Amino acid sequence: QVQLVESGGGLVQPGGSLRLSCAASRSIFRINMGWYRQVPGKQRELVASITSGGSTKYTDMVKGRFTISRNNAKNAVFLQMNSLTPADTAVYYCNANSPPGVWAAPGDYWGQGTQVTVSS
Q1: What b-and-e string marks burial along 48-68, b requiring 16 or more CB atoms within 10 Å of the CB?
Q2: C-alpha distance from residue 71 to each of 15, 26, 32 (Å)
Q3: Can you say whether residue 74 is alpha, beta or left, with left for phi > 0 and alpha for psi between -120 and 50 degrees?
Q4: pLDDT tens, position by position, 45-79
């Protein structure tokens, strides 16, 4: 099965920046990718997505502050987070969705999550 591993989380002050990385164990060519976040007691929410063709979408809460990107040669997806606020504190998860015929099993795949804490 495909494994996704996030890294880059940590503690940062309000107004600061972090860059999250997601490394996949298989090729992400033709795979749609996304970043989600979740806080205790809340539903996981989509933060940003990027299609296999490079089209991006963002939730209004992060638009203009976050940037999602991908490097297919490295099987990696990134989330550059700028102007962070305490409301951005959450566990961030990497998501991959494979259409039929790309990975062996189509559907959603998830990383283990990386903690982002924005605090003074």
Answers
A1: bbbebeeeeebeeebeeebbb
A2: 27, 13, 12
A3: alpha
A4: 999 999 999 999 999 999 999 999 999 999 999 99
